[in-house]
Amino acid sequence: MSTPFETVPFGQRLADAVAARGPLCVGLDPHAPLLERWGLPDDVDGLRRFTDAVVEALAGEVAVLKPQSAFYERHGSRGLAVLEDAVAGARAAGALVLLDAKRGDIGSTMDAYADVLRPEHPMAVDALTVSPYLGPGALQPAVDTARLTGSGLFVLARTSNPDAAALQSAAVGERSVAQVVVDTVRGWNTPGWVVGDPLPDVGGVQDLGSRWGATTGSFGVVVGATLRELDVDLDGLGGPVLAPGLGTQGGTPADLRRLFGTGRAVVPTVSRDVLAAGPDPAALRAAAARWAEALG
């Protein structure tokens, strides 16, 4: 069973999971073509059979499972029931669960979205992806909940979709939008910092606290593995980097090393390249193992 939220912060639990299982995060993306490839119907029964197979095969093997909420929501309340069972099953098998929902709103609405980080929630997860584009202060309810419960957040910063730069590279004064996001998350990982305070000075040196094996902050950013170059400064982030885009989108382990080096807490995400090996459980495990070996 996963460690209770209030005992150990997410950042440390993530570092411990990576030390025990490696850094691989596998996404659960049960879209209709994948269900068809598995020989399953695109309905709640097919969704459940797919999800149960992935959780059974991988929840005891990989550090993080990342269900994409939209593929469960499209099946209505019964689809969310499948997701709820999957989250509980994955955490019981020792995997951390990062809910990929990309929530972002203001006030009480953001507070309600963040309830999924509370241990008493029926679908309590370890961490949640969030969108910052209503402003850093809009995410404060989620930050407060994560701090209270020892959960984590991953904030979209410099993502892997091809047209992301249209917004994320836009200038805000002397910084890009993406850099403002990274700097804000860096502040969240600094004790006592709140939105509106001057950003903590890290002196331009890489943050040793963000390396695996040391205590890691619970607030991370999403930076794609498909970037031609790393155009945001991650020094002093103090938390993990979620790196999607590996496999089908074209990202490789070499790209991770090129972009992030070896001194950062990076969580590489693979979905379709692992899931395509199903429905055989042994084939799923073998595909995840190949990626884990490639990631070193």
Automatic annotation (TrEMBL):
<comment type="pathway">
    <text>Pyrimidine metabolism; UMP biosynthesis via de novo pathway; UMP from orotate: step 2/2.</text>
</comment>
<dbReference type="Pfam" id="PF00215">
    <property type="entry name" value="OMPdecase"/>
</dbReference>
<protein>
    <recommendedName>
        <fullName>Orotidine-5'-phosphate decarboxylase</fullName>
        <ecNumber>4.1.1.23</ecNumber>
    </recommendedName>
</protein>
<keyword id="KW-0456">Lyase</keyword>
<dbReference type="InterPro" id="IPR011995">
    <property type="entry name" value="OMPdecase_type-2"/>
</dbReference>
<dbReference type="GO" id="GO:0006207">
    <property type="term" value="P:'de novo' pyrimidine nucleobase biosynthetic process"/>
</dbReference>
<keyword id="KW-0665">Pyrimidine biosynthesis</keyword>
<dbReference type="InterPro" id="IPR001754">
    <property type="entry name" value="OMPdeCOase_dom"/>
</dbReference>
<dbReference type="GO" id="GO:0044205">
    <property type="term" value="P:'de novo' UMP biosynthetic process"/>
</dbReference>
<feature type="domain" description="Orotidine 5'-phosphate decarboxylase">
    <location>
        <begin position="23"/>
        <end position="287"/>
    </location>
</feature>
<keyword id="KW-0210">Decarboxylase</keyword>
<dbReference type="InterPro" id="IPR013785">
    <property type="entry name" value="Aldolase_TIM"/>
</dbReference>
<dbReference type="InterPro" id="IPR011060">
    <property type="entry name" value="RibuloseP-bd_barrel"/>
</dbReference>
<comment type="similarity">
    <text>Belongs to the OMP decarboxylase family. Type 2 subfamily.</text>
</comment>
<dbReference type="InterPro" id="IPR018089">
    <property type="entry name" value="OMPdecase_AS"/>
</dbReference>
<dbReference type="GO" id="GO:0004590">
    <property type="term" value="F:orotidine-5'-phosphate decarboxylase activity"/>
</dbReference>
